[in-house]
Write a structure and sequence with these properties.
Distance between the termini: 36 Å
Structural class: alpha/beta
Helix content: 25-40%
Number of strands: 8
CATH superfamily of one domain: Alpha/Beta hydrolase fold, catalytic domain
Largest sheet: 8 strands, mixed
Radius of gyration: 19 Å
Order of helices and strands: EEEHEHEHEHHHEHEHH
CATH class of one domain: Alpha Beta
CATH topology of one domain: Rossmann fold
Number of helices: 9
Length: 329
């Protein structure tokens, strides 16, 4: 039995509602029994079975932010889409709250494919996924596991296992640095156990220190302003639990991406601090992979990380539509 969720029926997105699509809330469950909440966007005046796309991300965001914008826009272009909240976050179920897991979050994408595959108006042979930021890495990880997926887009992606284990720009890639991180988190586990609750790590810095790196200011400009703030977004508020991402340090994803046979499009901003994740992920994906003709890395000139969250003049939706249609022929 699915967990009963309390879903907001009012339009509370960070983007305007389109008059070209029908919208409704849906729920589905993953193999761990967690019920996930999603917004379903369906193009108006479309008959027959549609190609479908599941969208998630960014890491620490909710479906009312970038994922919903991507989903609604792709629905305007003729796809049936869902934007979902991952386990333990947003309107989705799962306890305790604000935890992340390489396994469970990959499973969340697979559960979305389960759901789409059984819809009466979806062609189960034409299902794709889009992952944004940290869920870009999860999308690639899912594509390496789920043979039902015909096409995957990873936009402004993070490899969350890499950044947790090695730090930004691999600046903490040493056994000693990892040991100190693990030591601190294990101490936090004891403190949490004693208190009976989980301490939050804090969302995006507010206020932003004057000497903060540009990418910190970039995140502030999205998550902490009217542009992208949402009351259920972890990044907009208290963040993940301090130990919420602990397992990312010891469980690398993207191990078998060079065995992906289906189509993959990786998109990143040229000036994004995170661009190295996509460049390296693409290189690893095509290395010794006999299926490279349907793989592509697209770099957007002058774009920074959060430009691909919501700036519709920079997000290459035309390219994405063409990519999905060709991959799902």
């Amino acid at each position: 039995m699915e967990e009963k969720l309390i879903l907001t029926e009012e339009w509370d997105k960070t983007f305007p509602k389109s008059d070209k699509v029908n919208h409704r809330k849906v729920t589905f469950h993953n193999r761990y029994g967690i019920t996930l909440a999603a917004d379903l966007y369906e193009p108006k005046n479309q008959d027959g079975k549609l190609a479908a796309i599941a969208v998630c991300g960014p890491f620490g965001a909710v479906k009312e932010q970038a994922a919903g914008l991507y989903a609604q826009t792709m629905a305007e272009r003729g796809f049936l889409t869902i934007a979902f909240d991952p386990s333990f976050t947003g309107e989705s179920g799962g306890m305790p709250r604000y935890m992340a897991s390489p396994d469970i979050n990959t499973e969340d994408f697979q559960a979305a494919v389960d759901f789409l595959s059984v819809q009466d108006n979806v062609d189960p042979e034409k299902i794709g996924i889009i992952g944004i930021c940290g869920w870009g890495g999860m999308a690639l990880n899912t594509a390496a596991l789920d043979t039902r997926i015909k096409a995957t887009v990873a936009s402004t992606m993070y490899d969350m296992t890499r950044v947790n284990a090695k730090g930004y720009f691999d600046g903490e890639d040493s056994a000693d640095a990892r040991y100190e991180k693990k030591k601190a988190m294990n101490a936090q586990r004891i403190a949490d156990y004693k208190s009976g609750s989980y301490a939050l790590g804090g969302g995006v810095a507010d206020p932003v220190p004057e000497d903060a790196p540009f990418f910190v200011k970039d995140y502030y400009d999205y998550y902490k302003t009217e542009r992208g703030y949402h009351p259920r977004s972890l990044n907009s508020n208290g963040g993940w639990n301090v130990i919420g991402c602990m397992s990312f340090m010891n469980q690398p994803i993207l191990k078998y991406t060079n065995e992906i046979r289906s189509a993959v499009l990786i998109i990143h901003g040229e000036k994004a601090h995170s661009c190295y994740f996509s460049r390296d992920a693409y290189a690893d994906m095509v290395n010794d992979n006999p299926y490279t003709e349907n793989k592509e890395l697209m770099i957007i000139p002058d774009a920074v990380h959060t430009d691909l969250y919501d700036k519709t003049d920079m997000i290459p939706f035309d390219k994405m539509e063409d990519f999905f249609r060709k991959a799902m022929e």
